[in-house]
Design goal:
The chain is mainly alpha-helical. It folds into 3 domains: 1-136, HUPs (Rossmann fold); 222-329, Serine Threonine Protein Phosphatase 5, Tetratricopeptide repeat (Alpha Horseshoe), CATH 1.25.40.80; 339-497, DNA Cyclobutane Dipyrimidine Photolyase, subunit A, domain 3 (Orthogonal Bundle). The chain has helices at residues 3-6, 24-32, 58-77, 89-99, 113-125, 156-166, 191-198, 203-209, 225-238, 243-256, 263-266, 280-284, 290-303, 308-330, 351-358, 365-377, 382-395, 400-410, 416-426, 440-447, 452-457, 487-497; strands at 9-14, 34-41, 83-86, 104-108, 131-134. The structure holds flavin-adenine dinucleotide.
């Protein structure tokens, strides 16, 4: 250990970068000093959203716990002990850094308003020599974008064209195989620092408590547990949180199965685990780095096949970058009622509609199947998400933020930039304000022509003939709930509003 290392105690605050591979923040800390990794269970994450939902629902809590358990193991393998604390960063770190001479704080930057506000509060409390932020959550860094953050283009095509023409994706940083952690004496003599150190004894308990902290999450399909639990168990076994599971999925999707070579043809699928990459839950928690995915795809293209499909996965990851940089640019506006268009219109905000929508009982089987899948597993296909969001914001004319908050609570891959960005887009309040909506029955017939998908999640369709599974209300012996709205009339209303 060099003298420099000894004089540089660095707290690495893990956020949505729960991995040791391609982690520029951890990489830099290990190079420069003694490292103490910390994860904070911020009480705000477990409180109610503005519409009264638990901000982090059951599925996300499970995935987070598993991600942290795996991070702990991964860090132990390189000689570091993860400390997990219940605290707000802007309260803990200034006090902690004051109590340990020369200590520094390293962390990964985030992209959405609340998270960047926390960074601003830390920057205000700490001297610039005491902290450093790293970009670890996107393909591109703001520094290698061919425009400033204030000038992020307003359309995805323009963003992508410029990035593809003038920038290139940096290579992942190496995975560390050894690090030097804090020893007891590195915590010094200060009582506050020692009380934080003592929390090391409670890591197991903190992990267990994630699932019961704060506001209890709802389960809108609890009464369907008997018929849906097998699907739930199957999903949970396939999708475990953590870096190792994320890297295994990457290996599976590329090298073991070559699924990546047909992605563009299968990506609009609805059933099973293989029609799309399913990288999103691991990306959202930072178990998997976007750059690692791009780098592996480039190797795959060199060694096996390079085609539209291999390109398209990176194209989709650029959408993710686009939303992240746009969220940074727009700040608070990303979450505003009128969206980035500042176009506030009257919504219905009907509680019965909301309840019917979340519990998969609107009477429209394609909506209901998707919503039951989400409530049961924490996942829904991109095709499903677009349709249920369009139905919620356009046909039901509900406040888009209510739907987005429900997704925030439920989605395993919840990411404020992608979630609110996509919701805004579907509510026509985002980058493209043109009037647009999905015809949900046409969509159902196109993407679920056999009716197999709706049947999987809505068993009461058993008695409905195949040809009517997307319009069960036409069948007079249907056991399916009656539609909550007159669909045709709702399309007329949408056209009138346009
Ligand atoms: C209303 C709505 C809400 C959404 N909320 C989220 C969210 O909270 N978190 C999230 O990661 N995605 C969100 N998406 C985008 C998209 O549905 C998911 O990224 C995708 O379904 C995840 O499955 P996958 O990993 O198999 O995707 P794939 O089709 O395999 O795509 C590969 C990766 O590209 C990225 N990607 C793909 N489509 C999009 C997109 N439209 N926007 C941004 N990134 C994209 C994701 O990181 C994804 O993992 C939302 C879409 C809609 C319409």
């Amino acid at each position: 250990m060099s003298a420099d290392h000894q004089q540089n105690p660095i707290f690495v605050w893990f956020r949505n970068d729960l991995r040791i591979h391609d982690n520029p923040c951890l990489h830099a800390a290990i190079k420069q000093g003694l490292v103490q990794p910390i994860y904070l269970l911020d009480p705000r994450t477990f409180q109610a959203s503005s519409f009264g939902l638990a901000r982090m629902g059951t599925h996300r809590r499970r995935f987070l716990r598993e991600s942290l358990e795996n991070l702990r193991t991964q860090l132990e393998s390189i000689g570091l002990d993860l400390l997990i604390l219940n605290a707000k960063p802007e309260e803990l770190f200034p006090k902690l850094l004051k109590s340990i001479p020369h200590a520094k704080l390293f962390f990964s930057h985030e992209y959405a308003f609340e998270e960047t506000q926390i960074e601003a509060a830390l920057a205000y409390e700490l001297s610039s020599a005491q902290w450093e932020g790293f970009w670890t959550g996107t393909l591109m860094d703001p520094e290698n974008l061919p425009f400033t953050l204030e000038n992020v283009p307003n359309g995805f095509s323009s963003f992508r064209n410029k990035v593809e023409k003038y920038a290139s994706i940096p290579e992942p940083v190496p995975t560390p195989n050894k690090a030097i952690g804090f020893q007891k004496h590195d915590w010094g003599e200060d009582l506050f620092a020692l009380s934080v150190f003592a929390e090391r004894e409670n890591t197991d308990q903190q992990l267990q408590e994630i699932e019961t902290m704060g506001l209890a999450p709802i389960n809108p399909v609890a009464d369907l547990a008997d018929e849906l639990d097998t699907l739930k168990t199957k999903w949970e076994q396939s999708f475990k949180g953590g870096e190792e599971a994320g890297l295994a999925r990457l290996d599976y999707y590329l090298w073991q199965t070559d699924l990546v070579a047909t992605y563009k043809k299968t990506r609009n699928g609805l059933i099973g685990t293989d029609y799309s990459t399913k990288f999103s839950p691991w990306l959202a928690n930072g178990n998997l780095s976007a750059r690692m995915i791009a780098s592996e795809i480039h190797s795959y293209e060199g060694q096996r096949t390079k085609n539209d499909s291999t390109y398209w996965v990176i194209f989709e990851l650029l959408w993710r970058d686009f939303f992240r940089f746009a969220a940074l640019k727009y700040g608070r506006k990303w979450f505003a009622k009128g969206g980035i268009q500042s176009n506030v219109r009257e919504y219905q905000n009907n509680k019965d509609y909301f309840e019917a929508w979340i519990s998969g009982r609107t009477g429209f089987s394609f909506m209901d199947a998707n919503m039951r899948e989400l409530a049961t597993t924490g996942f829904m296909s991109n095709r499903g998400r677009q349709n249920v969001a369009s139905f919620f914001t356009q046909n039901l004319n509900m406040d888009w933020r209510w739907g987005a908050e429900y997704f925030e609570s439920m989605l395993l891959d919840y990411d404020p930039a992608s979630n609110y960005g996509n919701w805004m887009y579907n509510a026509t309040l985002g980058h493209d304000p043109r009037s647009r909506f999905f015809n949900i029955e046409l969509q159902a017939n196109r993407y679920d022509s056999s009716g197999e998908y709706v049947m999987l999640w809505c068993r009461e369709l058993k008695k409905v003939p195949l040809s009517l599974r997307h319009e069960p209300y036409i069948h007079n012996q249907s056991m399916f709930v009656a539609p909550i709205i007159d669909l045709e009339k709702s399309y007329e209303e949408i056209r009138k509003r346009a």
